[in-house]
């Protein structure tokens, strides 16, 4: 009898264990360094929002795939008029928001009109500036008319800033995001985690995962400890690159090293003296040793750049030589600009390792030519308030992870406040151009213009670094936009 009981207990234990293993195979815990300031991707510049919600919770008319391609999203197809000014989108039928309301043409009209409205707080409002009108033709048809042809329009509609939201749920979107995606928002413990659950009413292919938890771990040492202890299944954007060889040598883990759209720059307030003087900005660019920053802050992961453009893009122009490291030249240029003894300024550093570690290195390099940068470490919400919205800064370091976003330099109200009518006209011409060869030439001109104006200190292209348990499959290796797309992620059998 004892033997029978022990066997029964053993079988019971195995059954429980089996259920636990099965549950683990449908759950995932993903760690990120940055916590979103709120959960509305259409009203903030924080890429951390998209890192959690893009594709998972919110969807747009089109969407990015892991290889950077743009494919159909909530629009299953579209027709473009012969003059390139009218886009008629056919929406998918049977799509519902997470609160059970139907997604239709009126929601698309609401979303695009809200994004381009006068009182819009959309961080990428320029994406929608060329829209003349949005018409709900019927429940599943939307016509978007543009002022002029825009070769980037379908690409722009894939941004996280262009996701479709509903008027019924917009009031509470910052705390309770309601989208159409494969996962529904479940819970947010601020300072700790965001939880998602599978949307069983999803219009598309059901994800393999039933639940997903995003944990926020800002400290690189704590990040290493959490992954090594297997407290998390994935760390997307792993902030301690010096530890990657240790994970590569451990069969429990896989290390994903890819490219990103993240131009990491020493952002410069072009309207604040002395940075309103191009000669000062040029001098500063020669005081920066990019490779030393990549090696010291990122342990070799990252590609030095000389303009605001991704090196993996076919239209990239290598312009690093125009701001080659030459501290003696920097000193002479500063003297020529009226600052023989240098000057003092502020350097605001948000939490990512590239900023905090890179900022220490850059401050030391600038000090060698007489520029004394007073470092202030700020949390992400404070950076958004002080630097991005308040424009109250001299210098800051940030990685612009939006895809092919050189167009931000055409907005004089953007936080670094570069105002060049010639560049603005160049972007207008680019948007109206559809011929690939002509677009490549225009993009080259744009890169040369901002590099030659030394708008910002162009540092390096951020590598996409992630660590995951060996059994996780379907993660993006590259980061064509800031996202942790879990819709195709599963555990190996």
Write structural notes for this entry:
This protein is α+β, with helices and mostly antiparallel strands. The protein folds into 2 domains: 27-252 and 470-493, Periplasmic binding protein-like II (D-Maltodextrin-Binding Protein, domain 2), CATH 3.40.190.10; 262-462, Dipeptide-binding Protein, Domain 3 (Dipeptide-binding Protein, domain 3, Roll), CATH 3.10.105. It is built from 13 helices and 19 strands. It has helices at 2-24, 47-53, 105-116, 153-156, 220-228, 244-248, 278-286, 290-298, 327-336, 353-367, 380-389, 421-431, 436-452; strands spanning 27-32, 62-64, 70-72, 75-80, 86-91, 131-138, 141-146, 183-189, 193-198, 211-216, 234-236, 253-268, 303-304, 343-349, 371-377, 395-400, 457-469, 472-473, 490-491. Strands 1, 8, 9, 10, 11, 12, 13, 14, 15, 16 and 17 form an 11-stranded mixed sheet that branches. Strand 14 (343-349), helix 10 (353-367) and strand 15 (371-377) form a beta-alpha-beta unit. Helix 7 runs antiparallel to helix 9 and helix 8 (290-298) crosses helix 10. The radius of gyration is 24 Å and the shape is globular.
Give a quick precis of the structure.
With 493 residues, this protein is an alpha+beta fold. It has 13 helices and 19 strands. Strands 1, 8, 9, 10, 11, 12, 13, 14, 15, 16 and 17 form an eleven-stranded mixed β-sheet that branches. Strands 4-5-7-6 form a four-stranded antiparallel β-sheet, covered by helices on one side. Strands 2-3 form a two-stranded antiparallel ribbon.
């Amino acid at each position: 009898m004892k033997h029978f009981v022990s066997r029964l207990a053993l079988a019971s234990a195995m059954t429980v264990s089996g259920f636990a293993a099965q549950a683990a195979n449908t759950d995932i815990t993903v760690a990120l360094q940055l916590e979103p300031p709120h959960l509305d991707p259409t009203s903030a510049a924080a890429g951390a929002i998209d890192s959690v919600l893009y594709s998972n919770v919110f969807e747009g008319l089109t969407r990015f795939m892991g290889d950077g391609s743009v494919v159909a999203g909530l629009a299953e197809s579209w027709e473009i008029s012969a003059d390139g000014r009218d886009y008629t989108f056919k929406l998918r039928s049977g799509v519902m928001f997470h609160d059970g309301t139907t997604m239709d043409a009126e929601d698309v009209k609401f979303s695009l009109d809200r994004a381009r409205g006068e009182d819009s707080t959309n961080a990428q409002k320029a994406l929608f500036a060329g829209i003349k009108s949005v018409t709900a033709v019927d429940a599943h048809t939307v016509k978007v008319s543009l002022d002029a042809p825009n070769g980037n329009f379908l690409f722009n509609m894939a941004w996280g800033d262009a996701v479709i939201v509903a008027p019924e749920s917009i009031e509470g979107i910052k705390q309770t995001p309601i989208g159409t995606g494969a996962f529904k928002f479940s819970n947010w413990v601020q300072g700790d985690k965001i939880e998602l659950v599978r949307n069983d009413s999803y219009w598309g292919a059901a994800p393999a995962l039933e639940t997903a938890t995003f944990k926020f771990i800002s400290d690189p040492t704590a990040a290493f400890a959490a992954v090594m202890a297997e407290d998390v299944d994935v760390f997307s954007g792993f902030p301690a690159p010096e530890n990657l060889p240790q994970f590569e040598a451990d069969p429990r883990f896989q290390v994903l090293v890819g490219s990103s759209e993240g131009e990491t720059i020493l952002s410069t307030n072009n309207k604040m003296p002395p940075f309103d003087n191009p000669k000062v900005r040029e001098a500063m660019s020669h005081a920066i040793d990019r490779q030393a920053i990549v090696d010291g802050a990122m342990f070799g992961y990252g590609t030095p750049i000389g303009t605001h453009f991704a090196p993996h893009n076919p239209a990239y122009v290598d312009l690093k030589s125009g701001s080659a490291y030459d501290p003696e030249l920097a000193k002479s240029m500063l003297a020529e600009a009226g600052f023989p003894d240098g000057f003092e300024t502020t350097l605001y550093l948000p939490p990512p390792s590239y900023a905090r570690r890179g900022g220490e290195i850059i401050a030391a390099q600038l000090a060698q030519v007489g520029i004394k940068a007073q470092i202030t470490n700020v949390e992400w919400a404070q950076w958004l308030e002080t630097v991005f919205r308040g424009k109250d800064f001299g210098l800051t370091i940030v990685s612009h992870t939006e895809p092919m976003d050189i167009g931000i330099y055409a907005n004089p109200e953007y936080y670094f406040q570069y105002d060049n009518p010639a560049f603005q006209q160049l972007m207008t011409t680019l948007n109206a151009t559809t011929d690939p060869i002509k677009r490549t030439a225009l993009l080259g001109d744009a890169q040369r213009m901002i590099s030659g104006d030394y708008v910002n200190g162009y540092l390096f292209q951020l590598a996409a670094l992630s660590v995951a348990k060996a059994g996780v499959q379907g993660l993006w290796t590259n980061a064509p936009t800031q996202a942790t797309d879990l819709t195709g992620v599963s555990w190996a059998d």
